[in-house]
Amino acid sequence: MRKLSEFSVNYPISVLMLVLAVLLLGYISFDKLGMDLFPDLNNPRIFVEIRAGERPPEEMEKQFVKTIESLAIRQKQVIQVSSVTRAGSAQITVEYSWDADMDEAFLDLQKSLSSYSQNSDLEELNLSQHDPNSAPVLLIGFSHPQITDMDALRQVAANYVRNELIRQEGIAAVEIIGAEEKIVVVETDRYQLEAQGLTLATVAAQIQASNINASGGSIVEKGKRYLIKSVGEFQTLEEIGNVIVTRRAAQTAGANAQNPETTPVYLRDIAEISFRNERPDNIVRINGERCLALAIYKETKY
Q1: Which of 74, 120, 161, 292 is least surrounded by Cβ atoms within 10 Å, i.e. has the fewest?
Q2: Can you give the pTM of this predicted structure?
Q3: DSSP code of residue 251
Q4: Domains and CATH numbers, the chain
């Protein structure tokens, strides 16, 4: 320590140059350090999920969980095994040390549980790993004071906002959450179905058979080849209502017994057809008001 002090006093210029060199190196290194809101972490955990009917938690733990835990704790570099058991299902978390090769660990654990997965009492056994890149890095709420229809709001978000965001550097995908798309709802009258001798399967088959496009081959005229296509897909609700689902005998005085007259039964006669918004998988709110959310996913290199 004394020699260091003497060197600093005797050679002040050298010490100053050394300090400046360290500061310069630190500045250059700091400027080149990468920044990442969600860095790519090797999460050393594997999740084992099982399902087995409607068994109570105590039976699930005794019959399945303890056996899986005993197999998991024997794996290399496992430091902890924990579980959460519910009625009919359980999740076992196997935690490894940070320097473990998770690809190899996943294969080893999968191999150890392969024989156990053949248990006839188990309905499902899944192994999974958590990938930080599979989660969105940002959620943006999207609403408009003049647009209350969620399908119209979805179209604005999809056609304008998402298209602009996806062009930005570093963004891999933009997902719209809480969207409601318009669908065609056909509500049949049960009594009308019974009166006409129809079933839901029959009605659905008639709708599907009428809603198709067919190719009619091609023709050649003056050296040019033209494709022929029959357009049969529905364009309006009225076209859907005009689908003939069955035919019934006409009640006429002069009807021939061998060739009775029949009248068509249209879909509109036995059902109500309308546009409705599909029930969303998720509901998003801002200050209690319905809205959409834009989930932004980053590219792996950022």
Answers
A1: 120
A2: 0.54
A3: -
A4: 45-133 (3.30.70.1430), 136-181+279-298 (3.30.70.1320), 184-216+229-250+261-277 (3.30.2090.10)
